[in-house]
């Protein structure tokens, strides 16, 4: 009986870990709220869907011909995406990345 309970407990832990890793830990309403807030932002931006291996700086360097400072990119990203941690971007999610080549 103890073996069955232990096996069931291991399966539950594995299932919950897999669910958390594949779907993320943020509620679904947070992404919609972020998108609506970033539309009203005063900065130029591009909506980019994060791919595996992408970081905030790698995407910013890819879309901009000029290379802005890291501090400026982090500050502008935080303005465009207020509830997102720039160090923990989720694969498959679309974020507003600052675009510096054509400022209004």
Features:
single chain, 104 residues, mainly alpha, Membrane-bound Lytic Murein Transglycosylase D, Chain A, two-stranded antiparallel ribbon, 4 helices, 2 strands, rod-shaped, LysM, signal, LysM domain-containing protein, LysM_dom_sf
General description of the model:
By secondary structure, this protein is mainly alpha-helical. It has a domain at 29-98: LysM domain (Membrane-bound Lytic Murein Transglycosylase D, Chain A). The chain is built from 4 helices and 2 strands. The protein has helices spanning 2-23, 28-39, 56-63, 70-80; strands at 45-49, 94-98. The protein has a two-stranded antiparallel sheet with strand order 1-2. The radius of gyration is 19 Å and the shape is rod-shaped. The N and C termini lie far apart (69 Å). The relative contact order is 0.19.
Secondary structure topology:
Blueprint (H helix, E strand, L loop, with lengths): L1 H22 L4 H12 L5 E5 L6 H8 L6 H11 L13 E5 L6
Antiparallel strand pairs: 1-2
Report the helical percentage.
Answer: 40-55%
The named CATH superfamily of the domain at 29-98: LysM domain
Biggest sheet, strands in spatial order?
1-2
Q: What is the mean predicted local confidence, pLDDT?
A: 79
Total strand segments = 2
The biggest sheet amounts to: 2 strands, antiparallel
* CA gyration radius, whole angstroms: 19 Å
| SSE class | mainly alpha
The separation of the N and C termini measures 69 Å
Weakly predicted, low-confidence segments: 29-39
Quickly count the helices: 4
- CATH topology-level name of the domain at 29-98: Membrane-bound Lytic Murein Transglycosylase D, Chain A
Q: What is the CATH level 1 assignment of the domain at 29-98?
A: Alpha Beta
Globally, the shape reads rod-shaped
Estimate the strand proportion: 5-15%
Topology as a string of helices (H) and strands (E)? HHEHHE
CATH architecture of the domain at 29-98: Roll
